[in-house]
Amino acid sequence: MLEKTVIAIPTHRGLTNAPTKECVRQLVAAGAEMRVGTGLADLAGGRSWLLSRCLESAEAQGRTCILCVDDDMVFTVADANKLIEFALEHNVAASAMYPTAEGRLAATRYVTKRQGALTVERFKVGLGFCAVPVKLLQSVRDSFPGPASYTENGTIYPFCESRARYDREPAEWVAEDYDFSEKLGGVVLLPIAVGHLKTVPLYADQVTMERIANGEELERRLPAYGVLTHKNDNETERLLDARR
User: Fold this and answer.
1) CA 241 to CA 95: how far, in whole Å?
2) How are beta strands 163-165 and 172-174 bridged, if at all?
3) Residue 91 region by backbone torsions, left for phi larger than 0, else alpha for psi between -120 and 50, else beta
4) CB-based burial label for 56 (10 Å; 0-12, 13-18, 19+)
5) Helices 43-61 and 134-142 meet at what angle, rounded to 10?
6) The whole model's pTM is what?
7) Model confidence over 218-229: pLDDT tens digits?
8) CA 215 from chain center: how many Å?
9) Which class for 85: exposed (0-12), middle (13-18), buried (19 or more C-beta within 10 A)?
């Protein structure tokens, strides 16, 4: 399946995560073409530019699928093949499952559609690991009156827009990945688990802070309860006041 695929990787500072680089290297070794958009501080515009370039490349080479991959994902060749195979077989966008840094699934229910004899729920998803058939992306492109802009690096189609939607009740802000999901008619979420790399700051826990505030001796190594992924500024102020 990968010999039919162009990988689209948007990134601001480059592909720097070693685990993701190795995963992508394996996809390329299996026949995929890789397109990396670097310096993309404007994520909506950057994704649109990259998808426009990937579609251009896929059409020129006769490739049939674009695999959106974020620069902080961990996956296998088998994960990619299963996702691409399903997307091409049904001509739908398909996403793997992964959590956000807050521990929530990177997907929201969108619509329910018929798929052959089945009724399949479709989602608005993050674009961390999502396969889009070229035919489907072409239909989205052809629905636009034309490119959103012409640049020295090629035309850009507004595949991904981050904007307020006032035609809904209540009005809502739609991020660029959810906007793209809607333009695709929703995305099928498959039971394929992939990893999402996130750097999380660690903070000392309440017990440890109390011991420091009271001048108590700490264990040589912090126990399991000795770190948290969040902090309580009110407790910090209380403990500092107790020391003054």
Assistant:
1) 50
2) antiparallel
3) left
4) middle
5) 120
6) 0.81
7) 555 544 444 455
8) 46
9) middle
Contact between 75 and 53 (Cβ < 8 Å):
no
Single out the residue of 94, 81, 79 nearest to residue 192, CA to CA: 79
pLDDT tens, residue by residue, 54-98:
999 999 999 999 999 999 999 999 999 999 999 999 999 999 999
Whole-angstrom distance, CA of residue 114 vs CA of residue 101:
32
Distance CA(88)–CA(111), nearest Å, equals 20
Could you write out the three-class secondary structure of 170-184?
CCEEECHHHHHHHHC
* Distance, CA of 28 to CA of 106 (rounded, Å): 26
**Domains along the chain?**
2-196 (3.90.550.40), 203-243 (no CATH)
State both tokens at 30.
Answer: 């299996």
Question: Of all residues in the chain, what percent are helix, strand and coil, respectively (each to 5)?
Answer: 35, 30, 35
Q: What is the DSSP letter of 218?
A: P
Other beta carbons within 10 angstroms of residue 87's beta carbon come to 27
Q: What average pLDDT does range 225-235 have in this prediction?
A: 55
Signed CA dihedral, 131, 134, 140, 144: sign only: positive
Instruction: Scan for tokens 């998803």, then name that residue.
Output: 125
